[in-house]
Amino acid sequence: MTFRVVKPGFTVLFMIVFGATIVLPVIMFLWTSVWYGLFFLAIWAMGYALIINQCLIKRIEIDKSGVAYKTLTKNYKMSWDEIKIVGFGYLPIKAPGAKPWIYFAADGVSCPVLNAAMVNDKYFMVNYRQKIVDEIRKYWLKEIDGLDSESDFEKRFKPKRRLT
Question: Which end of the chain is more exposed for a tag (fewer CB within 10 A), N or C?
Answer without folding.
Answer: C
